[in-house]
Amino acid sequence: MGEKQPLDLFLGIGLDKRTAENALVNGKVTANLNAVIKEAGVVDGCSKNVGNLLYMVATKYPANALVHRSFLVQEYIVTSKIKSSAQVESARSFLANVGPEKCDWSAFEKACGVGAEVSVEEIEATVSVVIEENMNAILEQRYRINVGNLCGQVRKWHPWSDAKIVKVEINLFTSFSSLLKLRKTIDRRLKGILGDRTAADDENPSKRRRRSLQKLSVVTVAVPPPSEEELNPFSIFPKPEDNLKVHTEIFFSDGTIWRTHNTKDKLENHLKVTGGKVFTRFPPEPNGYLHIGHAKAMFIDFGLAKDRDGCSEKQEYIDHIQEIVEWMGWKPFKVTYTSDYFQELYDLAVELIRNGYAYVDHQTPEEVKEYREKMMNSPWRDRPISESLKLFDEMRRGLIDEGKATLRMKQDMQSDNKNMYDLIAYRIKFAPHPHAGDKWCIYPSYDYAHCIVDSLENITHSLCTLEFEIRRASYYWLLQALNLYQPYVWEYSRLNVSNTVMSKRKLNRLVKEKWVDGWDDPRMLTLAGLRRRGVSSTAINSFIRGVGITRSDNSMIRYDRLEYHIREELNRTASRTMVVLHPLKVVIENFESESVIHLDAKAWPDAQADDNSAIYKVPFSKTIYIEQSDFRTKDSKDYYGLAPGKSVLLRYAFPIKCTEVVYDDSGSIKEIRAEYDPSKKTKPKGVLHWVAQSSPGVDPLKIEVRLFEKLFMSENPAELEDNWLSDLNPHSKEIIPEAYAVPTLATAALGDRFQFERLGYFAIDIDSTPEKLVFNRTVTLRDSYTKAK
């Protein structure tokens, strides 16, 4: 009789058909489960419980402790010394820390509860203690008490107890046929505490809450304490001293498996250098300005540690990166460049060739692409090591023309992972380097340099977005091949914000083709653009912290959510003032022509009358200006602006009533005639902002105002692929060349932020001159994010 097929083996150990078929889809799980079944000696089948525990071992077992796996399954699982999933989880954790070293099996048994027996009486006694500790909640919530929570409390006392028994003990109101005597005892105890179950206990909680709200004018809701992750979002990251576990398994097409991890010696040497502290890098490529996605990277990198590195391509971008990092509030431990390690990288490349892990290749980019698509080896892949060493030296000395040779890593052209297709390590480029000058004419690729520099700088956590997860195998392949220290690699979700693009390639195109006004265009979500728009680093970091550190890569963060955090900060920090964007002249007929009154206006909404620092002066004269949109010739009940015969209140001033409308020759409204109520006895509903002539016949302060909307019309323009530029919003920028402002705004300086009352939040733009100030609208007063929530 031939060897059993994998599906028959999996069904034979008691797995249900769906689980068995799912296991077959994953080659790694199939291989591991096959091996575990054979190690356990149960190819002819076993009980369902044993089979489920073997499946746990196959899918969750630490790869650095494979030497102990056979003993675990033969001596503990098949014999039922270990018989619960909790015990297998404890075994996995214990052996992961032991790794390939000798295992103390006595300590193992103690840690995993081998031989521990918990009686029904012991569980019953613990249930009594838990019920007593939760008595207040039981009396308040009655039969709605969270049973799962109580179960968890009992399990903490008896981690190796039978979960079914615990649940029967805890479940206060569900009947079970088993352990009837114990159930009756618990029922009697609860009935003594709560009495009979009432109709209110069975009532829908929402109805009960509505009735309570009708009776109570104030409802106090207990807010649960924040979780550890909410208090410290970086608590999810592993500690530097624990970096002994297998980082990844690299499966080669010939059946070989590399399980990459640090040895104890490597980790100890690393910890001596770092002192056990966390070291990270923030390594953006200087091929464009940083955007809001980089703000998330900074938050994680600098929040977890204090270090930064930058590769070098263009000095403008290098300078920008250093400057914007500091503006974002982060202080690097040190600033380094990949070029600082060019000699070490070259020496390691030579070592890679000597060890048979790299070769000089002469394929063109087109040929490389074709061979990768066909999963074919390069014709130069197996050339002699000595030949590759000679050619690589000639590449370094500039004896080979640009594009005629590359150094490629000898990985696996038939791998299931395309990022193992002999990635390029070095290219020839006859161009001076911003830091290294003309010393080198060969330059390392990102795939080659990134992981090595991580290791050379003793980085503890190499952090990147999820699209790099597929590169994990090549990252660790290179470090393993060179026998270097291996940092943790941790991928997190990329920040996707609606109505914009985050790709540097697309951002570059917007700038170079002049669809926008440069990298710092306020419509762009580059950090320079946000800063110019008037957004602070505090608001950006608040937004990033609110988004959180997640691995969910499908979420699109609404632009409104960013605006919410911007608005929240500006509401606290921006002083109030008045500006009229589209002025409509109003002549106060019963006000003296040469007279000017200086009124008090509040720079802060909660300002006290005696606090002079929170008050600014506004002139009130015969000629004032209101927004064109605040006047209609026909009034309506839902309209609170000015209309013929109607009164409104001018903010910080007096009620006025429209008495006449003056038209020009074209039939457009030229000006409004009105009368003011100096006694303020009139109590109109509408309140308008306004600006007055500071002296008779002199126009108010003129300023330029730029209004910005979302750069793209659709939520995800990237989905339009090649047509993404057609989605640009033609109304994303509006320039108002001559808005009117109160006189005090003339002293505004770069960095100042204001709330233009009823209009939004604005900031001074760098285009401002002494002759004319320019303001950018940072965000409107409208908050659609909280409404949507």
TrEMBL record:
Pfam families: tRNA-synt_1c, tRNA-synt_1c_C, tRNA-synt_1c_C2, tRNA_synt_1c_R1. SUPFAM superfamilies: Nucleotidylyl transferase, Ribosomal protein L25-like. Residues 277-571 form the Glutamyl/glutaminyl-tRNA synthetase class Ib catalytic domain. It catalyses: tRNA(Gln) + L-glutamine + ATP = L-glutaminyl-tRNA(Gln) + AMP + diphosphate. Keywords: Aminoacyl-tRNA synthetase, ATP-binding, Ligase, Nucleotide-binding, Protein biosynthesis. One of its GO terms (molecular function) is ATP binding. GO terms for biological process: glutaminyl-tRNA aminoacylation; post-embryonic development; reproductive structure development. It is an enzyme of class 6 (ligase). Residues 687-765 form the tRNA synthetases class I (E and Q) anti-codon binding domain. The keyword Aminoacyl-tRNA synthetase applies. Residues 574-677 form the Glutamyl/glutaminyl-tRNA synthetase class Ib anti-codon binding domain. Gene3D superfamilies: 1.10.10.2420, Glutaminyl-tRNA synthetase, non-specific RNA binding region part 1, domain 1, HUPs, Ribosomal Protein L25, Chain P. It comes from the Eukaryota. Residues 7-162 form the Glutaminyl-tRNA synthetase class Ib non-specific RNA-binding domain. The keyword Electron transport does not apply. One of its GO terms (cellular component) is cytosol. Its EC number is 6.1.1.18. Coiled coil: none annotated. Belongs to the class-I aminoacyl-tRNA synthetase family. This is glutamine--tRNA ligase.
